[in-house]
Amino acid sequence: MGQGIIAILVFLFSLSVLFVSRYCFIQSSGNILRRLKLSDMGVIFTCAVLNFVIVEAFLAVSSVIYGEKTIALGILLGAVIANAGLVMGLASLLKAFPVENDIFRREVPAMFVALAAVYFLGHDFELSRLDGLILILLFAAFLFLNFKDDKFTGIDETAARPGRLAKRLNWQWACGILAVAVGGFIWGTYLLFKSTPQVADFFNLHKWAAALIIFGSFFALGRVFVPLFQVRKDFASAASLLTANICTILFGIGLIALIEPIYLSPSVIKFEIPAIALFSAAILAVVRSGKRISRQQGVLMLAGYVVFVVILLFHFD
Question: How does DSSP assign 188-210, residue by residue?
Fold first, then answer.
């Protein structure tokens, strides 16, 4: 009992380390990029991309190093599901959740393209290095189409701009904080993969189910800095959450496969990916009715997420 509780605390602490490191990394990077005379829009674009991929990059690399690709894949897919139901639903309980006019023209098609890519590439229950490369190329294409002509459709620009920390740093401090942030990523991923198997054992769950339900949901909540209390501006809309999901699927999963092939369990192709697609379609049907997600619609999203969790638990019972 005591070791299990300690493992849970270590896991939560590892997420805190990862996301604090992400903030410091982006702020120090923004400061350095400005000193290199990069344009304001270039700085914003670079910081925006880092905001979505830097933690996933260290998660992917570390999962291969520590032999925990299954947990990493479960965390990434679990975060995608949690973003669509848990995060968006909880956020809408506090206030009406904005839905951009162009979301059905850009983010929605890209989301289903990403899911279809993983489904068909992994239909043989393996994502090879070539499959990983294809996912990464689709990620690059998404960035180009989504951010071309300096249009940041999935991100609040104010969140991608360097904040107070970046403005107060000199060159030496910026480089020092950047190095500390990298160390934080390394330490955070080490603690994460060291604690997650013990957490799964504590809850008497299969590692895959624990990654989808527990680790993925906390990862999603940590990414938006606990939206139960305050929705961050950079993730305060349906488009930004979908953009996060697209980046997670194409870049996070693609990078793991690019480093080392992933052998998928049949449930990924036969259950999780179709479930994400159906769940996303249901959510989109809800948000299609207006430019904001009401509290009542948020309750429906949370109910859908609970149904998914229950089905998953019975599936692995």
Answer: HHHHHHHHHHHHHHHTT--HHHH
What's the token pair of residue 26?
């982006």
Contact 146, 226 (CB under 8 A): no
Q: Per-residue pLDDT tens for 46-87? A: 887 888 899 999 999 999 999 999 999 999 999 998 887 888
Angle between helices 2-35 and 216-223 (to 10 degrees): 40
**Residue type for 278, please?**
L
CB under 8 Å to 208, separation ≥6 — which residues?
70, 74, 265, 267, 316
Domain residue ranges in the chain: 2-315
Contact 54, 26 (CB under 8 A): yes
Architecture of domain 2-315: Up-down Bundle (1.20)
Q: Which long-range contacts (CB under 8 A, 24 or more apart) does 130-133 make?
A: 131/254, 131/257, 132/253, 132/254, 132/255, 132/256, 132/257, 132/258, 132/259, 132/261, 132/262, 133/254, 133/258
pTM of the predicted model, to two decimals? 0.87
Under 8 Å between Cβ of 51 and 22: yes
φ, ψ dihedrals at 260, nearest 5°? -155, 130
pLDDT of residue 234: 44
What is the per-residue pLDDT for 187?
A: 96
